[in-house]
Design goal:
- This protein is of the alpha/beta class and 317 residues long.
- It contains 9 helices and 13 strands.
- Helices cover 40% and strands 16% of the residues.
- It is globular and about 60 Å long.
- It binds pyridoxal-5'-phosphate.
Length: 317
């Protein structure tokens, strides 16, 4: 956490069974019946699942595939009297859009959280997977009372270990510990020990170097392939890290229908933007492409096939 500009004490860290459990615990600790949550119009589906059981009201704000959450829109809502139980966002290499907040935006979000006494959940599984540019401080670096940081070893060591952590503001420490205990008493000590052995052998940094190298190559292969094969009426961002590229299609194309055709005709899958929507139509004409698991040559072939399906649909219109 110190590397992310965060100062916290060991007793503010709660080890969780993956970041997903962190989100579940925080939803339970913070959401009261009738409460609401502030999220981006497209958000990580697991966060929506974590809050769903509480049936909260959801306020959505726009989000940009380059600049991230629309902070002006957040401010307008808060100034208008909206009081959510928390704001949820992914500042680094957002899932699904790949966006990354500037340092000024992080500072501004933290200031808003402080000014309106709004708990802000900073979900951060991807920041260590940065390929370009300087690492930026976590939002939590700018506020230690209202920002709650959720970390994970899933994307940087192994998802199957199921180990993550929350950096909890002092005032929330007890509530979070009680919910954690109620959920599973403690995260498997065996897997924590495995991870501890890995971390104390100084293996993490060289491992991260390899990951960044390999994911950068795959990201570049995907961006090259999109440039080469996709029609000029489509747009996409250039993520500086993480695992995803967000592609926007003409509004007449529904990505969920395109998915069915892409799987049937070409054996290629992606996640349609609508799967991440927190409002009715958000992301309907967008796709999240993941470059995580395929070799560069496979990525090129997959994008070529996807472009073929898309061009067919555009011709039929
Ligand atoms: C933004 C975000 N948060 C949390 C998670 C869940 O992480 P974990 O495997 O640590 O539970 C994911 C996994 O895809 C994610 O993308």
């Amino acid at each position: 956490m110190a590397e992310r500009g965060v100062s916290c004490s060991a007793d503010q860290i709660v080890i969780t069974t993956g970041a997903q459990q962190g989100l579940d615990i925080l939803a339970r600790a913070l959401l009261e019946p009738g409460g609401g949550v502030l999220m981006e119009e497209v958000s990580y589906t697991g966060a929506a699942q974590a809050i769903a059981a509480h049936r909260p009201r959801v306020w959505s704000v726009p989000t940009c595939a380059r600049a991230g959450i629309d902070i002006d829109a957040v401010e307008v809502l808060l100034e208008g009297g909206v009081r959510p139980a928390f704001l949820y966002t992914v500042p680094d290499f957002h899932n699904p859009t790949g966006s990354c907040l500037t340092e000024a935006s992080r500072r501004r979000l933290a200031d808003l959280a402080g000014r309106f006494e709004l708990p802000l959940i900073e979900d951060d599984p991807y920041s260590a997977l940065r390929f370009d540019g300087e690492a930026l401080p976590a939002v939590r670096a700018f506020d230690d009372r209202w920002v709650i940081y959720v970390g994970s070893f899933s994307k940087i060591v192994a998802p199957a270990l199921r180990v993550g952590w929350i950096v909890v503001p002092q005032g929330l420490r007890e509530a979070v510990s009680i919910v954690k205990e109620a959920s599973d008493l403690e995260t498997s000590a065996l897997t924590q020990r495995v991870l501890e052995r890995f971390l104390s052998s100084n293996a993490l940094e060289p491992h991260l170097e390899r990951l960044r190298h390999s994911y950068r190559e795959r990201r570049d292969a995907m961006l090259d392939a999109l440039e080469r094969h996709f029609p000029s009426c489509t747009r996409w961002n250039r993520p500086l890290g993480g695992l995803f590229v967000w592609v926007e299609l003409p509004p007449s194309i529904r990505a969920d229908r395109l998915l069915a055709e892409a799987v049937d005709e070409e054996g290629v899958a992606f996640i349609p933007g609508s799967a991440f929507a927190t409002t009715r139509d958000a992301g309907a004409s967008a796709m999240r492409l993941s470059f995580a698991t395929c070799e560069p040559a496979e990525i090129d072939e997959a994008v070529r096939r996807l472009a073929r399906v898309l061009k067919g649909r555009l011709r039929d219109e």
